[in-house]
Amino acid sequence: MNCSIKPPLPKHVKISPSLICNLHCPLCPSGLRGMNYSSKLMTLKTFSIILNKLPSSIKNVSLYNLGEPFLNPNLLFMIKKLKEKDYKVEIHTNFSFHKKKNFFEKLVMSGLDTLIISLDGASQKTYSHYRKGGDFNLVIENLRQIQKLNQQKNNGSLKVIWKFLINKYTEHEIEKAKNLAESLGICFITNLMGLGDDLVDYQIPTSFDERKKTWLPNNEKHIKPCYKNNEPTPYLFNQICSELFLNPVIKPDGKITCCCWITNKKNVFGDLMKDSFEDIWYNDIYRYSRSLFIENTDNELIIPYPTICENCKNFRKKTK
């Protein structure tokens, strides 16, 4: 990673087609219906402008952020257009929705590279503790359909991943879920539970102590290091911020944020509907924000308003 206030243009971008969700996950601002963002679904017009403004450095596109991407009716068209430009495309979904068979056929044939499904548990009872409003059996049926069509019509080219979030209610079903994934012929990965304290501009309604008590697994090996101490750590990740240098996020209205944890429209870093990607990537707020994490830089740049990065506790800032 090039830790400069003017790093190379990124190779990866996250494009958010949707900030709405059909589930009510209790540690997610979208699930809690708490997003302070008026534009919730990306239009084709906005998407077209974004596509034409992406720099040539971009190779990989994650087509999701803080919402269920498949709630955007134009998502398959967006995938198609991205693949026409040879981008690697990844989607993260809860996959808990009813669709006709031709939808799954179109998805398999769209050219999508990776489909990651959030499925925590091996039963409805376990799954519904966190994925409130979700239907475990429906997700499994959708997985069966997509995997069958993937093998029949696409030679298995679409990589399908079952992503299992480990918490107090799901840890006892890890092996059962892993075996089920194996029987379906799909990849299985686990993810350690976060408690929503990485959201830099959104406060989860419950207290941090309550969240720890409610959600953290009993087996300590399934707990993130930052949650193992009784006292909160000064930052969640013992490293400088990588998001400012590598991972821009484009919201449904075409505005750019510096990371995936931004929920409030007042904390955007630029507007792709008005400016070029390059101008935003190297603007004053981006440069100033990067300087907060780089030793031996002068961060006394004049910017029109404070950056949200000044209050972020996710990453280690430079010593003052």
Kindly state the number of beta strands: 9
CATH homolog superfamily: Aldolase class I
Do you know the CATH topology?
A: TIM Barrel
Provide a count of the helices.
10
Count of domain modules = 1
Strand order of the main beta sheet, please?
6-5-4-3-2-1-7-8-9
Largest sheet: 9 strands, mixed
User: How much helix is in the residues?
Assistant: 25-40%
Overall geometry comes to globular
Which architecture does the CATH hierarchy give at level 2?
Alpha-Beta Barrel
Topology of helices and strands:
Elements: E1 12-15, H1 44-53, E2 60-62, H2 75-84, E3 88-93, H3 101-109, E4 114-118, H4 124-127, H5 136-153, E5 159-166, H6 174-184, E6 187-192, H7 208-215, H8 243-246, E7 249-250, E8 255-257, E9 270-271, H9 277-281, H10 284-291
Parallel strand pairs: 1-2, 1-7, 2-3, 3-4, 4-5, 5-6
Antiparallel strand pairs: 7-8, 8-9
